[in-house]
Amino acid sequence: MENFSLILAIVVVTALAFDFTNGFHDTANAMATTISTGALKPKVAVAMSAALNLVGAFLSVEVANTISKGLVDETGIRPEVIFAALVGAILWNLVTWLVGLPSSSSHALMGGLIGATIASAGTGAVHGDALVTKVLLPAIAAPIVAGVAALLATRLSYTLGKKADGKAAAKGYRAGQIASAGLVSLAHGTNDAQKTMGIITLALVAGGAVAPDSDPPTWVILSAGLAIALGTYLGGWRIIRTMGTGLTELQPQQGFAAQTSAATAILASSHLGFSLSTTHVVSGSVMGAGLGRKGGVVRWSTATRMFVAWGLTLPAAALVGALAESVTDLGDWGTAVVAAFLITSSAAIWKLSRREVVDHNNVNATDEPAGVVTTAIAAVTPPPAGPVTDDLTATIPAPATDPAAPSTAPAL
Question: Which stretches are transmembrane (predicted)?
């Protein structure tokens, strides 16, 4: 550790700052449906998610190795390049959090890293095969697989629960939803915390602090787990609102099906070393669960904004990372300018967010329109049946009369 320079320390701190934003940006992945259905109170839900994120960080290092060894050529990377990549990822996380869009923190990080690497060492320093097989293909396939699985699981849940007692079934599904939410939190820590471990390990290799091809040191695993757990506990309430009530209205059966499907997909991808976006997976499963219930609808206006954000994440973060790398390449003063820009921009975004505060008190409130389908269903729903009476009374009140006014009735 004698080679632990100032720039390396800055990179590690910035990486943990990204991990913190990843935590509150992705809290919705595990707990949005649990909060929206009332299975857990908001503060209890985020505390549980934070603890399990920390535990999950210690379960595997396969995804961390994908980031540190597989995506870019680690021998040609300087610590300044990684710092520039983190700037792009953090700013994209904060912008999408401000507008309440559940975009991918994972793709923001990888986009920033790819852009900064290309600006520094050219396209040859990016491993295209790893990018396609372990990043792009899972990004397309995972939400589709999770969505179809959640749709089928939702229909199966309602089919099996037709003859069950309503209150007992709802109670059972709420318990199952809490368990599945915990599994998603564990999976999120296993997958997403490792990305920061990988980026810090890559910086340590670039700075000569550890040998090439090294696994993340224990202190890196612990610090990354703590950072993402703290961010998760604070709760990204804006994105929780979008995921929990802005996409569709969920019942406990749907929440259980969505989270179970998502957790299965995330844990399987972590085992295989795929740098999967948990946001994509959970969003796909929530939409699948919404479509799986008879009469359920998805608010496609919100979904469309999410899809656009997903498509922009990699190129937007890559562009910011490349620009930041161009400035840091000018020397120490350039790195200082980029750091000042990051701090100033982050503070400005936070100040903007205070204009409309979203927290655990109003997280389930939404003014998102229900959509054409829901409106049409409501329009044709018959009024509730009531007792028929023989006495019919007029429903149009007689006009009010002023006792002091002169009478206009004709004289008899």
Answer: 6-24, 44-61, 81-101, 108-126, 132-153, 218-240, 307-324, 330-350
Report whether 123 contacts 378 (CB < 8 A). Answer: no
Distance (Å, rounded) from C-alpha 41 to C-alpha 354? 23
pLDDT tens across 69-125, in order? 667 776 667 888 889 999 999 999 899 888 888 788 888 888 898 999 899 888 888
Provide the 10 A C-beta neighbour count for residue 356: 10
Q: Quote the CA–CA distance of 5 and 23 in Å, as a whole number.
A: 27
Q: What distance in Å separates the CA atoms of residue 126 and residue 85, rounded to the nearest whole number?
A: 13
For residues 230 and 20, the answer to whether their CB atoms sit within 8 Å is yes
* Regions in the chain scoring below 50 on pLDDT: 1-2, 368-396, 408-412
> CB of 280 within 8 A of CB of 143?
yes
Alpha-carbon dihedral sign for residues 406, 407, 410, 412: negative
The helix (run of H) or strand (run of E) holding residue 184 is: helix 166-206
Question: Where does residue 392 rank: exposed (0-12), middle (13-18), buried (19+ CB within 10 A)?
Answer: exposed
CA contacts within 13 A on the Cβ side of 238: 19
Measured CA to CA, the distance from residue 273 to residue 258 in angstroms comes to 23
Question: Residue 145 carries which side chain, given as an amino acid letter?
Answer: V
